[in-house]
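Usage

Read records sequentially. Each one opens with the input sequence:
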Amino acid sequence: MNSVLVFKTSITSNREIKQLKPVLNSLIAKNGYWNFDLEDCDNIFRVETKTISPHAISQIFKSLGFSCEELD
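and closes with the structure output:
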């Protein structure tokens, strides 16, 4: 069963999403789904997956120069 994880991010534009897209697709798209809500004040990233941990997602964003904090 997939988990839905929600993160606050520093992503603010579609250009930045395009930068992350290849990495996110390679790690998540096979076993889940992801999207951004840039209209939310927290620039929300949602991911539905059963194979990747919240910590791993945060580390991916950090390695690409973005912040990403899981919301409870």
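Summary fields computed downstream for this record:
- The chain has one domain: 3-70.
- The helical segments are 14-29, 54-63.
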